[in-house]
Amino acid sequence: MPNFSPQHLSRLVKQRGKELGFDLVGITTPKTPPTYPHFLRWLEKGFHGAMAYMERGKEKRGDLRLILPDVKSVIVAGISYFVPDEQLPSATTLTGKVARYAWGMDYHEVLLRKLEALLDYLRSLLGDGVKGKAYVDTGPILERDAAVQAGLGWIGKNTCLINPQLGSYLFLGELLVNVALAPDEPFKRNHCGKCQRCLLACPTGAFVAPYQLDARKCISYLTIELRGSIPRELRPLIGTWVFGCDICQEVCPWNRKAKPTEEEAFKPHPWSAPELLELLTLTEDEFRQRFKGSPLKRAKRSGLVRNACVAVGNLREEKAVPLLIRLLCDDPDPIVREHAAWALGRIGTPDALKALRDALWSENDERVRQEILVSLRERDASDAAQEASFNTEVTATIA
Question: What are the start-end ranges of the E strands in 196-300?
Fold first, then answer.
């Protein structure tokens, strides 16, 4: 095996990483992550919600030798995915919001190819004895912690990694190797200071404290990871987000410095600005065809249609009523029918309310029936309150 010093190898790895298109490349050692105890407490509090995979891999997150027994170094690489708003396809009042990271192609495949090319480069230098494992957001690694230890930035109060030059619109990937590389100095300072903009801007109150996210309230979790019913009390707070959320990053002052990505794969595709009424009509085949290669496929057809129901309900969009009625009557997924019922109740036109009453006779799923009943009761209560308010105003005027 050729004789390279750890320092020389690190320089070569970083240079090759930049040539492959990474904006950031840092190196750390496979020690126990400093945030690992906090991660375990986060799990104990149930803040991971339905993301059971977080629990399954918890031991590996604390000891990377359980992934690669002879691991000696962890290469952490990052790419900016920031695209200015003006590059987004023209949006209308009926356009659903998609998190910026999903405007382009699926980042997992893009970064994984680059990391595997970096591994091949190490093998070209040192021979086939080089072993490695590459992960992009899918392996049991506390990747933001690893990025801090590799000197790439600090973890902000919104739990995102923030780089002082690039902001937080970053994809991260890790390459574990059995090669001794010279590690970088950990990023020491936290530059959030007294700023609380991200904490105050979150509509659902998902940040229970600085640096602590209850994923069960996060719009990204609710619209992507959650497969079942979105809690009723959170639906009005989601607005028109149909896949993910960027609010806590949009308000972060450090993202004023974000530079547009140079990676063509992350430039906006048509799915970055989906029309809500079109989402309500999606079939399984249309979903697979339209979102092939897109991060939005993770939500699955039923999740995306569910989210569109919530969005049009929040807009109280009357044009959506015929489509919602069709979903309520014909969709095979009870989760979709439940959220269509909720949206019809929110819109509250005579046709919408009649459809809800009619559906009580044909609906067999008890959860959907309960949603219909609650939506009708809420509408009746709202109408009664409006009538009482009107009568009070009339009485006051006459008096």
Answer: 207-209, 212-213, 241-243
**Residue 76 forms beta bridges with which residues?**
26, 174
From first to last of its 399 residues, the chain has per-residue pLDDT tens of 567 899 999 999 999 999 999 999 999 999 999 999 999 999 999 999 999 999 998 999 999 999 999 999 999 999 999 999 888 887 777 999 999 999 999 999 999 999 999 999 999 999 999 999 999 988 899 999 999 999 999 999 999 999 999 999 999 999 999 999 999 999 999 999 999 999 999 999 999 999 999 999 999 999 999 999 999 999 999 999 999 999 999 999 999 988 899 999 999 999 999 999 999 999 999 999 999 999 999 999 999 999 999 999 999 999 999 999 999 999 999 999 999 999 999 999 999 999 999 999 999 999 999 999 999 999 877 665 554 443 444 344 454
Give the active site residue among 63, 137, 184, 358: 137
**Is 137 annotated in the active site?**
yes
User: How many angstroms from the chain centroid is the CA of residue 37?
Assistant: 24
Helix/strand/coil for 46: coil
* Residue linked to tokens 């079942």: 228
Angstrom CA distances, 267 to 104, 158, 249, 264, stand at 5, 25, 18, 5
Superfamily in which the 275-399 domain is placed by CATH: Leucine-rich Repeat Variant (1.25.10.10)
Would you state the structure tokens that stand for residue 347, as one six-digit string?
Answer: 């819109």
> Within 10 Å of residue 349's Cβ, how many Cβ atoms?
12
3-state percent helix, strand, coil for the chain, nearest multiple of 5:
50, 10, 35
This prediction has a pTM of 0.92
Domain assignments of the chain as residue spans, ordered by start: 6-84+99-177, 275-399
Q: Measuring CA to CA, which residue among 79, 133, 74, 141 is closest to residue 110?
A: 79
In the block, residue with structure tokens 């030798």: 65
Report the sign of the C-alpha dihedral through residues 209, 314, 282, 325, in that order: positive
The residues facing 209 across adjacent strands are 212
Question: How many whole angstroms separate alpha carbon 316 and alpha carbon 243?
Answer: 19
* Maximal C-alpha separation, the chain: 98
Could you tell me the two tokens for 41?
Answer: 């407490």
Structure tokens at 46: 């149930």
Mapped onto helix, strand or coil, the DSSP state of residue 231 is: coil
